[in-house]
Amino acid sequence: MFIKKALSLLLAAVLAFSFSGCRNRNDEEENQNPEVTQQDELVIYHKNTDLAPMLMSLTEEYSKATGKKISAKLAGNDFLGEMKSQNGVLYIVDTHSDLSGWHSEGLLSDFLNDSGLSSLISKVPAGLQLNAAGIGSYGIPLMLEGYGYIFDKDMLSDIFGEENAEKLTGDLRTCSFTDFEGFVSALDTWISAPSAAELTINGNKYTFAEEKTGKAQNLTGVFSLNIESTRAMEHLLSSALAAKFASRYEVLTAGEEAISEMEDIFKAYAEVLDFQTSHVAGAEGTIGRGEEFIGGDYNYSTSVDLFARGKALFYPGGTSDAADFEKSAEGFGENLDIIPMKLPLSEEEISAAGMTAEKLQSSIVIGSRYYLAINPNAEENLYAAARDFVNWLYNDTAGKTAYSSAFGGVPFNFEYLMGAPSGEENSSPAEGESNSETETESLPSEGAKTSRNSEGNQSMNEGQNSEAAPEQSLPEESPEMVGPMNPSHKISGTLMEAVAEYYSAGNWIPDLSFSLPADFSGKILGDSLSGYWAKDSWTESDREDFVDIIIGGWKNLIDKDNTAVG
Q1: What angle do CA 459, 464, 465 make, to 5 degrees?
Q2: Under CATH, which architecture does the 146-366+517-556 domain have?
Q3: Domain topology for 42-144+368-481
Q4: CA dihedral 95, 51, 123, 459 (to 10 degrees)
Q5: How confident is the model at residue 203, as a pLDDT?
Q6: Which one of 34, 212, 368, 524 is most buried, by most CB atoms within 10 A?
Q7: In sequence order, what are the beta bridge partners of 364?
Q8: What is the model's pLDDT at position 30?
Q9: Are 132 and 100 in contact (CB under 8 A)?
Q10: According to the model, what pLDDT value does residue 294 have?
C-alpha cells in the first residue's frame, strides 16, 4: 500500500509539473511581447571609464522620464568573456576593433533585421555603419568625433585681424594643399619675424599683423605634434584611403592589386608627414626632426600642453582631445574650430567612386569610436527594454535632451533644417523630411514583438573578395543641407558645432583606417614612423622606401582569400 500510494503521489506531481509547463509555454505563446516589470533592470555594460559620468547622466534621465530601472556598469578586462558568461543585454563596443570577435560569438544583433530598430538604423550613413563585411548593421553610433587640424579662432583673429578671421577660416576649409602649404610656410616665417606680409588663399588676399599680440604672442611653430602615438597619422591616412576606396568594406577586402595602386597616394601621404614635421612647435621655438624631436619629451601630454599654451596654431587630432586641452590650460578651448587635413592629390590620382579633389580637400574625417549593441540571445523582455532605450535616446525629445546634456556632441541623426534662410526656423519641412522639433517618431510599445533572425549567431563571411557586392544596401552619405542648426540637439562648444556643419553638409570622410588589418597601425605604420622621426631630413629615396614598407606591410597582413587578418 505504501508503494502504491507513493507511486500515486509521484504521478500526480509529474502531471502537475507537466500541466504547469504547458501553461507557461501557452502563456508565452499568448504573450509574445512581455512587458518590462519594475523588477527588471537594464544594465549598460562598457569598458571605458571616460564614459561613466555620461552614462550615469543618461540612465538617470531615462529612469525619470520612463520610470524604468536602468544603470551603467564598468566591465572587467575580459569584456567579451564577461558578457558571454553573464549574458549581458546592452553594451557599448569599440568600433571595428571589437566587431569580429563579438560577431563570431553571436553577441551582436543585426538591427536591420529588427523591425523595432530597422527604421532608426537605416538613417545611419553608410560610412558610419558597423559592418566590417559589408552586410548587416550591428550597432548604433553613440557619438560622432571629428578629426582634422584643430585651432583657436581667437588666435587666428590676433594674427590676421578679427574682421578677416571668419572669411579666412572658410578659405582654409576649402583650399587646395598648395594654398595650405603656402599658408603654413608664410606663417612659419611670420612667427620668426613678424611683419605685415601678404598671402593669398583661395584667390583672396590676407595681411599678417605687424607684430605678435594676444594669443599669438607665444607662437613658436605651426603644428603641435607628438611621437608616441600614430593617431593623428591614422586620421590623415583615412583621407588618403578615401582617394582610392569609397567604403570601409572596400578597404577591408582590398587585394594586392588595389593596394599596389595606392603608391602615388601614399607618396602624397608621405609628403604631408614630411611637411607637418618640418613645422613643429617646441617650448622655445620651432624644432626639427632627428635627435631634437625624438630625444625630447614630445609625448601626447606635451603636445596638448603646447597647443593649449598657444605655442602652435594647429593641433592635428580629434574632438575627443578637447577635454584634455581644458585640463592643460583652464579656460582654453572655448572658441575652437577645425579644418581638413590636406593632401597633394590631383583629380587624376583620385579614383574612389563619388570622390573628387574638391571634396577630399574640404572634408574632415568623422567616425564613431563607440557603438550601442544588443545581445540577440537576450530574454525577450530585456531585449525589448534595450530596444526602447535606444529608440528613446535618438527619437524622443526627452532622450535628445538627455543626450545633449550628457555628451554635448553630434549624434548620427543630427541634421540642419532644410530650406530655411539662415537664422530662421523652418515651419514646414521640405518634402521627404521631418521637422524633429515638432514631429517625433513613435516608439515601439514595451510589448512590441522583437523581429530577429539567426543572422546575429552566424559567423562573419570572411571569404568574400573585393569583387563581391554587399548583400544589403546601406544608405548614401548625407546630402548637402542648408539652414540653421536643428534645435532638437543642442551642440556644446564651437568645435562640435563646426563638426556638425561638416557632417550636415556632407563634407566628411568615414574613418576608413579602422578597416585596415589589425596590426597595420602599430606594426607597420608605427614602426616605420619611428625610423622616419629619427631623420633630420627625408630624401625622395626615403619617401619611396616608406611607401614600399606601407604597401608591402599591408599586403602581408591579408591572407590569400583577400580578407583582412585579425
Answers
A1: 155
A2: 3-Layer(aba) Sandwich (3.40)
A3: D-Maltodextrin-Binding Protein; domain 2 (3.40.190)
A4: 30
A5: 96
A6: 368
A7: 508
A8: 36
A9: yes
A10: 77
